[in-house]
Amino acid sequence: MGTAKRWIAAASILALALGAGARCADFELTAAETQRIAARQIVVRANLDSGQRRGTVRAAIGINAAPAVVFQMMTQCADALQFVPHLRVCRLRDRAADGAWMLIEHEIDFGWYAPRVKYVFRADLVADRSIRFKQVSGDFKANEGIWEFEPDESGIHTLLRYRAYIDPPGFIPNWLARSTFKREMPQLLTDLRKRCEAEQVRRTQADASPH
Q1: Where are the domains of the chain?
Q2: Secondary structure of 76-141 in HEC code, one letter for each residue
């Protein structure tokens, strides 16, 4: 079965499993949104203040890769630097011996539009299931939320959901804050999916190769 046919089959299973909607990361996908996910589109909802700069953002995407692949991609700085827009520094500051949490330092560079945004966040990890994050120091007034990974019945396709409350630094212009919700979140998810799916193909081919 070709890649396109495999995705269509997986998407159909996902749509049937979700039915009229599914709850995860504190929001429920509508039937229409479920169909968009199955059609390889991205769902982004933003509930923002009147200035369109702070509020709660929710997003979802289907990825043709196992939760373990997506989870690993999202918890390694070398990979994050490749798919997070404007991320220039990603540094592991500390981590639990059992892998239950990490402290990560980020620096985001918007160029001449604004000074670099610097912050440290704690990520509480449930392997292959969730990443709950919260800023512990830095420039954001608030930056906390969760990523959740939901496999389909095959175990090699993931529904990735996101929810966060974000209040950006005061020096970030309103138009730039809006851009992060409207353009950069979809770009982040698109680039993440591309990398995860390439890694899934690589692993599948490696497993199929004679040893």
Answers
A1: 3-208
A2: CHHHHHHHCCCEEEEEEEEECCCCCEEEEEEEECCHHHCCCEEEEEEEEEECCCEEEEEEEEECCC
